[in-house]
Every structure is written in C-alpha cells, then in structure tokens.
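dude i think i finally got it to work??
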Amino acid sequence: MNRMMVQVLCGLIFTTIRAPAFPQSKDQLHVNLQNILDAATTDFREYRANKTAGPDVSIEGTKVPCQMTTWANNVPMYICYAQVPLANGKDWYARTIEALQGFNPTWHFQIKTPGEDHYVDAGPLDCEIPPTEGPYAGQCPLHLQVAKQADGTAKLYLWVNSLSSPYLLKHASAPPPKTVPPAVVGGCDDFCQGLKKAFEARTSAFEDIRTGKSSDGTSAITVKLAGAKECSVNAATGSPSHDVGTQYVCYWRDGSGSAAVARFRDLVSRFQVLAPSDWSTRQGEELDEYTGTNMTAWYAVEPGAKHDVRIYVSGESVGLHITAWN
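look at this
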C-alpha cells in the first residue's frame, strides 16, 4: 500500500468517527428543582440558615416564587405559589412534571387530572398522601398542583417536605372511624374548604356567608371552622390606613400552650398557601391591646391594604381575623 493510499484511508476513517456527544445543559428550572430536592435531604438547613430567599421555580414568562415555612408538627416545607394565566400554568406544569419525573426513577407519581386541574403527590413507592396537618414518615414528600380558576387563571402550587427532619415521625395508628371521613377535594379537607370560603368571602365584605345580624351588629354565619369556640362577622376598627371595616373572626381555646402554638402554626401554613403570592407577610411579638399580655401574631396583607389576615396565639388562645376594610 503506497503512502498516498494510506493517507486517503486514514482521512476517511477519521471523518466517519463522530465526536462524543456532550449532554445538553439543563435549564434553570431543572437546576432549581434539583437544588430544592437536594436541600430536602438535609432538612433544608442551608435555606433555613440563609437570610436570602432560596431558588424559585419560574420559567420564561411565568414567575413562581418560593419560601420556607413549617408544618404544625415542625417539619420544614419549601413551598412555591403563583396565580397566572391558564396557558402559562399548563406550560409550567408540563415542564415541571417532566423535570421531576426525570430526577429519581424509583419515585412513584400519583396523578389526578379532573378536567383541566392536575394534582400530583410523589415519593417512594407506596407513599401515602400526607394529611393537611403535617407530614409523617412514609407519606409522600412532594405535592404539585395546578387548579383552574373561574376567572380563567390558574393557581400553581409546589411544595416539598423535609426528608430528614427529626420531627418526621411515624404516624400513630388511629382507631377505626365511626362515621364517614370528611371529603377531601384536591387535597383540601373540610377545614381547608371552610377557610377558603371565609377567605374568598372577603371580596363581598362577608355578605356571602352571613345569615342574619344581631342587635350588637354581630352576624350569624354559614362557615364555622372546626374546633372554634366562636366564629362570627362583625365590625373592625383600628387599621392605620382605614377607619372601619368588616371582619370574619374565629377563636379557639386549647388545653395547653403547646397545643395552641401547634394550631397557630397550622393556620399560618394554610394561609401561606391560600394568600396570593403578591401579599406581604410578617410575624412578630406584640402586646394584646385588651389584656396587655404578650402574643405572637402573623399578618398577610394585600397590596393597598384593602384586605388582610391576622392570626395570633397568646397562652392557650388562638385567634383568626380576616378583614375587608372600607
């Protein structure tokens, strides 16, 4: 074989060998979702220690912010929420579920799709859907939800529970129920449904849930939250930016301070899901204006302060105020 033929054959062989294919770079949604799932394995210690916000799960044209919170049983949870046009919500759901299903092939995804809604609970095979009061060992750590609204928008939810929290204990077996258990619609039990009705009624100054008015101006209502000593609608005063308003009020009296704190945290975690993403939230210590005792209060305030939510705990007492200001 002469030298010229060797050069030609070598050139042909070289051109038929394709360069190794490099994996395509993952988009920011993939990166952030992987970061969140990794943080869940270490009890979100990095996020909880950081004063800055953790990663969001936004995509192009659809902003979905996230924040740390805690369930009533002290298990940390990373929750993301937004309300967006329905088409954006569908696109976000499709990309998010595709990314999540590619991370851990051993995870099982329980998907329900009534109409245009999507409800997903995911985790190890045979994991149970967690109850609204907080997750336990053996229950699915991830929930994804897209729910169409009457105005043509969609509410988007993604939350991931800690995978290594010391509070993530085995749920004690409950005795067999004597009655039919409360209905759960899309992961929302009777208590959750009641909160939603009361919260949504703020737009009509609670006229939608009133049944009558007594001589002192307090109204009887159709929505009473489970366990509450009293729930009513009455006048509200004392806002720095408004003179008067109308409020939906519920009070609970628990058997111990720890039980009251657990109820307070549960209410806060529920409203962190219910309140729109553009509402501002804060929590702090303050004095009860009537008794002068210390209490912990959590606020969620709509931009413009037309509506707000206040939840507080003092000793063994817990209160909820949803207010529509004039």
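The chain has two domains: 28-161, 190-325.
im so relieved honestly
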